[in-house]
Design a protein that fits this description.
CATH architecture of the largest domain: 2-Layer Sandwich
Low-confidence stretches: none
Number of helices: 14
CATH class of the largest domain: Alpha Beta
Largest sheet: 7 strands, antiparallel
Helix content: 25-40%
Length: 446
């Protein structure tokens, strides 16, 4: 990689190690170096060199992933895209933006709001995660119940292939069916098919008035799940619907002293950004009370609304303070959400494991977090046994192993249970077309 400046190629082992991990407990191998790409040309140069020398490349954003997709292996080159932070274009007339992969998700949303628009996907890590990482994992977020996941906002991509060729996919228009959907194929591919160097994304009109938010406390998780089903069945169309179990609330309370009541076993946080947001929030409050809520608070100001949403965004950090975390994200049909919640509780009891669960409840995406002792190299056998049970039950209910975090390394052991032999063969064939040497993020996703 002689054409890259020395400042962009890092070989110090201690510095390399800081780029080799994500937010999982997984230990990386011993990578050979790090490339700090500042432009598409840097990525092209890196991939051409890697192809010539048959060196594996691990693309990386901010490293906020929770599945091990950016954990580096032995002898690999880590390709960091965090310095590619330009918003190349923001078109209010067309309601699109063209952004580089290192742009922080919240920064794009902030830039859009200056024009009365917003970038809808908002993973809980939106203040630190990058657009490139969101695209690589097809990240969801708190607003996905109404606006969909990252793929639903991705119109087109600029991708550097394994051999250094540049592929443009998709379009700038809201509609388009020419050819195969290569954009959709790359979104969620976890860096195994190509390196995304720019994306054309859809922006949406920001709500004209501040959203209305409520928080409801329940004596059982099952009641909270029933309230979610009732709200969705009533056609309330919440823009956010988040469920927190007692273990999660207790972790937040231990950290921030939120005044958690002994009887509270679950909290449901919902929001409406409709034109009649206050009326919708009031209707959702009624439905919560009808389904066993002990208490419901509705925000009376944007500040109060942000405080309620802030509780949800504290969840993962609060759990990390209590131990190492195996974070999962099964997704099931909304109608069986209460059954999945019950199964998670049963698995925790049966195996004597601490599981703290939050959920993007409006679309059935649950995050059971298995907490074990800090400093443990990997989860103990009882944690894996409980996780096996949770994943198996999710699939039995017609669900999926991952709703938004991706497969990475963590879910490799369960992948065959969902994919099946035919799907696995087809996906391997697709991988061979785009990456015949197998140098892009080897061992991940498929």
């Amino acid at each position: 990689m002689s054409s890259l400046s020395e400042a962009r190629v890092l070989t110090d082992p201690d510095v390399i190690d800081s780029y080799a991990r994500d937010r999982t407990f997984l230990e990386p191998g011993k990578p050979a170096g790090v490339v700090l790409a500042a432009s598409r040309d840097d990525v092209v140069t890196t991939m051409k060199w890697a192809t010539e020398h048959r060196v594996p490349v691990v693309p990386r954003g901010a490293g906020t992933g929770l599945a091990g997709a950016s954990v580096a292996g032995d002898g690999s080159v880590i390709l960091s895209l965090a310095r590619m932070t330009t918003i190349r274009e923001l078109s209010p007339a067309d309601e699109i933006a063209v952004v580089e992969p290192g742009v922080i998700t919240a920064d794009l949303d902030k830039a859009a709001r200056e024009h009365g628009l917003m970038y809808a996907p908002d993973p809980s890590s939106y203040e630190i995660s990058t657009i490139g990482g969101n695209l690589a994992t097809n990240a969801g977020g708190l607003r996905c119940v109404k606006y969909g996941v990252t793929r639903d906002s991705a119109l087109g991509l600029e991708v550097v292939l394994a051999d250094g060729r540049i592929l443009d996919t998709g379009r700038r228009t809201m509609k388009g069916v020419t050819g195969y959907d290569l954009t959709g194929l790359f979104v969620g591919s976890e860096g195994t098919l190509g390196v995304i160097t720019a994306a054309t994304v859809r922006l949406r009109r920001a709500p004209a008035a501040p959203p209305a938010t409520f928080a409801a406390e329940f004596g059982s998780l099952r009641d909270a799940g029933a309230a979610v089903s009732a709200i969705m069945a009533a056609g309330c169309q919440p823009s956010l619907m988040e469920l927190l179990d007692r273990a999660t609330l207790k972790a937040i309370d231990d950290w921030r002293n939120i005044g958690l009541e002994p009887s509270t076993q679950a909290m449901l946080i919902g929001q409406s950004d409709a034109t009649d947001a206050q009326a919708m929030a009031a209707r959702m409050e009624e439905l919560c009370m009808e389904n066993g809520a002990a208490f419901v608070a509705v925000s009376s100001s944007p500040q109060e609304a942000e405080e309620l949403i802030g509780l949800r965004r504290l969840a993962y950090q609060a759990k990390e303070r209590q131990g190492a975390c195996l974070v999962e994200d099964v997704c099931v049909p909304r109608s069986v959400l209460p059954d999945m919640i019950t199964a998670i509780e049963a698995a925790a009891t049966r195996h004597g494991v601490r599981i703290a669960t939050v959920a993007h409840a409006g679309d059935g995406n649950l995050h059971p977090v298995f907490i074990f002792e800090h400093g443990t190299i990997e989860p103990p056998p009882e944690v894996w046994a409980a996780a096996d049970e949770v994943f198996t039950h999710a699939l039995e209910l017609g669900g999926t192993l991952t709703g938004e975090h991706g497969v990475g390394l963590l879910k490799q052991r369960w992948l065959a249970l969902e994919a099946g032999p035919v799907a696995t063969e087809v996906q391997r064939g697709i991988k061979a077309v785009f990456d015949p040497l197998g140098i892009l993020n080897p061992g991940k996703a498929i």
